[in-house]
Design brief:
This protein is an alpha/beta fold. It is built from six helices and seven strands, in the order E-H-E-H-E-H-E-H-E-H-E-H-E. It has a seven-stranded parallel β-sheet with strand order 1-2-3-4-5-6-7.
């Protein structure tokens, strides 16, 4: 079981490394059960540097740590898994890079992608965006809670709601 509360950490311009780690640790102390580093536009070295520190935090709290988009870097870090987008490596290649026992997640945004995910067999799917999000300028259309309910009916794979979910949502 992956847990119910999944934190996606997207470092923002102006956030220091320490501020990012502090926010992550506060979320872990508050009950987050999975942590994903989403550093989409970062080069490999800074991603690895922050990833190592976040992995150590996740280990301290006993929760899985995933890296977004980059199974090669996730494997180098010894991450528990990788979360892939629709345009990233296919799941079969990511499994080869990650090795046995690692978790592969896949973002989905509509019914067709959820159905395709059933065939590709990720370990879980993210579905959304549920609400409008400021962390991804080119996000897919907002699906809302009704879209989430409809997607949930299409698969028995574990599913996380993604996109624009905040404490205020």
């Amino acid at each position: 079981m992956l847990g119910r509360l999944y934190l996606v950490v997207t470092p923002r311009p102006g956030w220091s490394l320490e501020a990012t780690l502090d926010r992550t640790e506060r979320a872990l102390a508050g009950g987050v059960e999975v942590v994903q580093l989403r550093a989409k536009d970062w080069e490999a070295r800074p991603t690895l540097a922050l990833g190592e520190r976040m992995l150590a935090l996740a280990r301290r709290y006993g929760v899985p740590f995933f890296l977004n988009d980059r199974p090669d870097l996730a494997a180098l870090l010894g991450a528990d898994g990788v979360h892939l987008g629709q345009d990233d490596l296919p799941i079969s290649y990511a499994r080869r890079l990650m090795g046995p026992g690692k978790i592969i997640g896949l973002s989905t945004h509509n019914a067709a992608q959820v159905r395709e995910a059933v065939t590709a067999q990720p370990d879980y799917v993210g579905f959304g965006p549920i609400f409008s999000t400021s962390t991804k300028a080119d996000h897919d259309p907002v699906v809302g809670l009704e879209g989430l309910r409809a997607a949930r009916a299409l698969t028995t794979l574990p599913m996380f709601a993604i996109g624009g979910i905040t404490a205020e949502s």
